[in-house]
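To: structure desk
From: M.T.
Subject: fold request, one chain
Message: Could you run this one when you get a chance? Sequence is below, nothing fancy, just the single chain.
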Amino acid sequence: MAKAIAQAVAQRQTLIAEAGTGTGKTFAYLVPALLWGGKVILSTGTKNLQDQLYLRDIPTVRKALGAPVSVALLKGRANYVCHFHLERTLQNGRLTSREDVGYLREISRFIKTTTSGDKAELSKVPESAPVWNLVTSTRDTCLGAECQYYQDCFVMKARKEAQQADVVVVNHHLFFADVALKDTGVAELLPSANTIIFDEAHQLPETATLFFGDTVSTSQVLELCRDTLAEGLAHARDGAEWAKVVAPVERAARDLRLAFPQDVVRLAINQIAPSSAFFPALETLKEELQGMTAILENQAERAETIEQCRARAVELATRLERWNAPAQGGSDTAADEQERVLWVEAFSSSLQLHQTPLSIAPIFSKQREGSPRAWIFTSATLAVKNDFNHYASQMGLWNETAQSWPSPFDYGRQGLLYVPENLPQPNSFEYTDAVIDAALPMIEAAGGRTFLLCTTIRAVNRAAERLREEFGKRNLPFPLMVQGEAGRTELLERFRAAGNAVLIGSQSFWEGVDVRGDALSLVIIDKLPFAPPDDPVLAARIEALERKGLNGFVHHQLPETIINLKQGAGRLIRDETDRGVLMICDPRLISKPYGRRIWQSLPPFKRTRDAAVARAFFEPEQGAGERQV
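Reply: Done. Structure tokens follow.
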């Protein structure tokens, strides 16, 4: 694998490289990158993996090779404390909770000793603490070169270091935010980069879709109102009755959310009734925002921060206008490759208006034009039964070289795939309870040491409720950890330390989670991870495929599900000495014609439907002679 990557790097070519768990793919791309790469941008799936590469993997390889390369870590601006916003928050005293006041004190101590300003270094303040929003900048609220702290700015410092380094570690969100917004410092790096490597490349279609689209939300409008009121009162108290200026805009934003009485809504624009209150409420919001913008224009020269509010108001108005302009035009864009899906998503207190490209392939192909450089896409899950077509067509990587390197693990000896018998259909009301009934004897046989991976948050909550009850009734000593009760990293640390725990999680635990050894011996997957049928983008993509005479299920939904399932299954065997059972509860794996294609894409475990055989696998080095499916 390292040879194939070295060749692509040397010849500035594109390579799609699937590498099974345990192949050492990180070292396979790092060695050629550090030896041959010139300027390398290395993009990975999450900030945690970024930190792991920067703090652990790259120093190890650099030391072994004796390679004199400089390395920089670059994250999005929301990860760096902003001197200006920290100062302002300390002065304003706008904090409501005692906890936030304590966190703010920690942050103001931290800023005096840190050289990077990266919030990941300050473990005393949780990454999800709301106070971070008040002490970091966004593209809208950064004063740039006008800022009095510009010389000390951590974001600027990180970008400067990245420009000077040989290897820059970023994440996919940052990479694509930059391609779309030119705001993260990657744009300045790209022209000089000879090599771009994407690890966890299976995540790219989703991340790129997010950034090549556009989302505008009522939360952004309400934040603008909050800041307009604060800055107006601070710098132009006599210029307007600021409370009366923002009130109609706030009301219009809330009315827009209230156009949908349900708690959670996902609707394509053509699914919203023409008589819905949504359309007039949207027009009202646009009008009220214009009124506020006019007043901000009159007062803008009185303070830099009021001018900034004016610029934000203009941008929000433009994006609101642009959101449904194509839909009103009524032109038929079916033939247009750049077709976009307009859809609305409502949460308990906010509404988001999305504009999502139907395909990112033409947009991403355009990004890759220009000076020749190496593009490496690598992950454990890019192919469906050694076929890379689905991934290549999503990313616009037609006719590029694709290769697969299988895992060195002995899956036939180390693992067992168990599909229980007699489970109801996955859409039935009692399905999660039936899964728990089938799982309990397995959890007992495994001595805890279980991941239960669910496809919905509702299933996570129901499974947690049932297992708590059953563990109590049966007096089982297994600590239960549930997604949402603590951060992902903390839950995983507690899971490893306990040695006999059961962890219930949804999507964020299906990938990027590495638990080696005895702490994890059973992975239970409740359902095949098909995307929700009410997803407007999915519906539009299927429709587009069917217009071309293709089958939306076979050519899009099924490959997506297989790649997702391979990620979940990959949590089980992480090492040559790991042993365990992968229990997939969904009866469609056996009953549907497509089931065979799915399990043939999984690691070559032995297979059984016999509960006794599955339980026996946990007895020391037994598990021979399983009844085959």
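Reply (cont.): Confidence is low (pLDDT under 50) at residues 327-337, 622-629. Let me know if you need anything else for the meeting.
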